[in-house]
Design goal:
The protein is an alpha+beta fold and about 260 residues long. The chain contains eleven helices and eight strands. Bound molecules: coenzyme A.
Length: about 260
């Protein structure tokens, strides 16, 4: 099969998140997100991060040349088109790629990075005919490790000494690889797990569900969890979809039946 041209990449979506090309209007959100100490700690983005860094990043990714070498997407949470993260496949020109991603602090903990990773890797295998995708993270980056494992990356327990580089320094890393077979096997495990244990809610969705079971309104949930009302709305929408419920009360009834939450005593 002849690998497809990465320039022709479509918007990818699984119904809950979408991957779209970056836009100039993403500058403010990227600049705000990259002030986050976790992004500075776990990625190689400039630190301190200036607006001009975001402008240069977007301009660089928009060139034809980069589209063919580093397909990059903005991660958005459906239906909001706002930039909430980025994901890149760094193609090696020999049917392999290295994946890099980050989520804005305001969009974390809802399974979005895992979904974005799954979408980008599926596209890389099916459209570019990649044979392997490599993931690496600096030792200690548990959130990234969990998301990569969930998608099916095979990650040995040992440390690859000085494998990563960050702003002029080498750092010990965890390294994993994903083949099309790994991705398919992880999806099958996910399906089986859902059939056996019920829907796979994220940590944040379980938190929101617990508050829903207490009859709280979005505004109260938002203030108790320290997130925006809009984010609560997105979580509720995702919970309803996963529990196949048409209302909040129906979702709570299903969750109680499945033992996902219990009523306050
Ligand atoms: C890594 C990152 C992209 C994850 O984004 P996210 O949207 O919060 O991830 P998800 O919600 O999909 O969660 C992924 C998994 O990590 C777990 N997780 C999330 N935050 C965690 C934390 N701080 N510690 C341990 N596990 C964590 C989640 O429970 C989930 O695991 P599960 O599916 O087994 O329950 C985000 O934390 C981030 O942008 N970090 C800074 C930049 C970075 O590290 N990029 C990756 C470089 S390799």
């Amino acid at each position: 099969m002849t690998p497809a041209d990465p320039h022709s990449r479509p918007v990818l979506s699984d119904g809950l998140i979408s991957l779209r090309p970056l836009r100039l209007s993403d500058v403010d959100d990227i600049t705000a997100a990259c002030q986050d100490p976790q992004i500075s700690r776990w990625t190689a983005v400039p630190s301190p991060y200036a607006r001009s860094d975001a402008e240069a990043f977007i301009a660089r990714q928009a060139t034809d040349e980069m589209e063919g070498i580093e397909p990059t997407w903005a991660i958005t949470v459906v239906p909001d088109p706002r930039w909430s993260g980025s994901i890149t496949l760094h193609l090696d020109g020999a049917a392999g790629a290295d994946v890099g991603y980050l989520m804005a602090p305001w969009a974390r903990g809802a399974g979005h990075a895992t979904r974005a990773l799954r979408l980008a890797c599926t596209w890389g295998f099916s459209t570019l005919s990649l044979q392997v995708i490599t993931w690496h993270a600096f030792v200690g980056n548990e959130a990234s490790l969990h998301s990569a494992r969930r998608v099916g990356f095979q990650i040995p327990p040992h440390v690859f000494r000085s494998y990563g580089s960050q702003r002029g320094h080498r750092r010990d890393s965890w390294v994993g690889t994903l083949t099309p077979e790994d991705l398919a096997a992880a999806s099958r495990i996910g399906e089986a797990r859902r059939e056996y244990l019920g829907p796979d809610l994220t940590r944040r969705e379980r938190d929101v569900l617990t508050h829903l079971a207490q009859g709280q309104a979005n505004r109260t949930i938002a203030s108790e969890l320290g997130i925006s009302e809009n984010t609560v709305k997105n979580h509720v929408r995702s919970i309803l979809e996963k529990l196949q419920a048409s209302s909040r009360s129906e979702a709570v009834v299903s969750a109680l039946r499945l033992g996902l939450v219990s009523l306050p005593g």
